[in-house]
Amino acid sequence: MKIYAVDFSEETPKYAQISKHIKKLIDKGKIRDGEKLPPIRKLSSFLGVNNDTIINSYKKLQSEGYAVQKMGSGTYAKKREESRKLKRDYAETFKKMKGKDLDNYIDFAGETSCNIFFSIDNFKEVINEVIDRDGVNALIYQEALGFEGLRKSISKYFWNNKLAIEDILIVSGAQQGIDIVSKAMINVNDNVIVEKPTYNGALFVFKWRGANIFEIDMEKDGVGLEDFKEILKKNRIKCFYTMSYFQNPTGMTYSREKKEEILSLAEKYDFYIVEDDYLSELIYSPNIKYESFKSLDTNNRVIYIKSFSKIFLPGIRLGYLISPKEIKEQIENSKVNTDISTSSLMQRALDLYIRKGYWKDYINNIKSMYLKRYNYMEKCIKDILKDKVSFNSPGGGFNFYLKINDHIPVTSDRLFYKCKRKKVLISPGVLFYRDRDDGVKYFRLGYSQTHETKIKKGIEIIDKILTFDKDN
């Protein structure tokens, strides 16, 4: 028991200090993978804390993937070294590759629009016009909520003037939107529901806030509602984070029926829906109709986040957020405390870009281009990978999410390293799950950064690895 001793400080809650200490013991191998952790009463007595402190420590370890609870048996340590190494290697891959280096690879991992589709001349025009028009004011932070002109354009062109501009908050992309919402409303030990799998950037934010994270498996038309209801019945949920269109990484889109049911549950159980409207501009299937959670919300239960960065230019870091009136002030204060204001020049330029009609033309153009890539990649997967993988066609977005069939003895992390050596970049499924074991047979292929001429070659390389690699 001596290894569990903690020298407590006053600045951090004791349960968090205990869980941090145990994580270090697991990472260093002083607590073995699968080793049973001390019973709650025994550890609470040894450390001189109450039972609830140990319960919260063990819950935090479970939420971060460092422990598993076995009913009637206890809590057991879970080593996360492989998952952490893969995430580090994946991140380092893109940190080290720039420009021409990346051109030597077939990039199936990119998540943003390809710059070859963007007309720089139009953007230079609006930048110059904004500077001529506004002078130095274009470079000065003036409005905490964001440039009024851009908020008016968002209301007019994206919401048919159904939103008051006071309800629109300009943010520096979806990631910042998730972050400021979390700071505004999520405290340590609050309960959050996420999709399984989900965007790892959101997982990181919720973990950082000390939230208890509940995962619900994605189905073809959204999360499984039976599991969703069971969690709501047993736990006080603060919010549900969802990507309503072409969910990252699965590519799945919510049906209207599930949206309406979840909105009804939000009202009944008093929680907020944090809607990350991800790539809804890129709908290819005639069977998919655009109706966001926010557009169907009649009870002020939806916090809506929209990024321009994924679909437009990643470097401009712009998006917007719409929040219910009850928590609007909290979220605005969180934004101000985060960075005061978002780039004034970029806001003014985007406003003019939208009003001149360039935005609409740009979206129509890239939608046409990406539809060709979507159809071509889908055909290549079906023709080349055949019985090696299974997948659902998303009907839009940037990605396909593939499951390596059970008779193929290859894991997604091994596939990532093998592909990288062959100059092909993929996103292994383990990145999108709290527990890496859930993602070992999945991987994501994106086509936003890769021309048709490279798509077939890349998939042929993946096919050879899946065919000849013996991961036994």
From TrEMBL:
It comes from the Bacteria. Keywords: Aminotransferase, DNA-binding, Pyridoxal phosphate, Transcription, Transcription regulation, Transferase. Its EC number is 2.6.1.57. Pfam families: Aminotran_1_2 (PF00155), GntR (PF00392). Coiled coil: none annotated. PROSITE patterns: HTH_GNTR (PS50949). Residues 12-80 form the HTH gntR-type domain. One of its GO terms (molecular function) is transaminase activity. In the C-terminal section; belongs to the class-I pyridoxal-phosphate-dependent aminotransferase family. This is Transcriptional regulator, GntR family. The lineage of its organism: Bacteria, Bacillati, Bacillota, Clostridia, Eubacteriales.
